[in-house]
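Write out a record, focusing on structure:
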Amino acid sequence: MHTVRLWKTGNPPVLGPANYQTPPSTLNWDMWQGPAPVSLYTPERCHFTYRYFLDYSGGVFQDFWCHIADVVWWAINPTGLRSIRAKGGLPEGIGDAPNWIDIDYEFDNLNLHWTSTPPNVPGAEKRGIGAYFEGDKGTLLCDYNSREITINGVPMPDVAEIPITLERSPGHQQNFVNAVKSRTQPESNLAYARQMTMPMHLGLIAWRLGEPLEWNPRKEKFRHNAEANAMLNREYRKGWDLV
């Protein structure tokens, strides 16, 4: 395996103008913002559309990275990230997450590419989200519900069914409750989530700075870039600096 291509189509909604107002009596706006910078309340910054503001999220890219990059980390667990190069568009309206973003990552022995449009590979144009694995002798194209394998350019028929040998998940909520009771790690645990989502955050930093970045995977710092390293953390606002 030498290359993986990930994509998710779609642009964020155009939000605004900001409708600043008193928060509803049913919403504790201070609690909702948590450690993020204080902002006046406007419905656009809350509930579903919060994801289009960098104070809280990273737009369509950050929203869907975990859904499809998860397949890559399950399958091949990329390590040794070396460089990140990103480009993207600025949004319209009051949101500030990217309107679209393309990112190239270089890992040890793997190139990983994220695009906001399907890559130019067979079958990708039919899917709004997907992953395309490229090896020396074959490819795998997949999304949530389908997969297509080729070996030496020849499509392989999918198996009709496979034996159930792994315990099926009871669902996120029940799995978490079971993990608390048994003192075992849940299926989606913090150590795994941190490893899988770190490249996503680094990609957003590269987009915000508008320059290629070199990464030291052992120190988990950018090489020779103080501005980028300053963006790895942010100061929690007073009252929320608990750690």
Notes: Helices lie at 29-33, 59-75, 172-182, 190-209, 226-230.
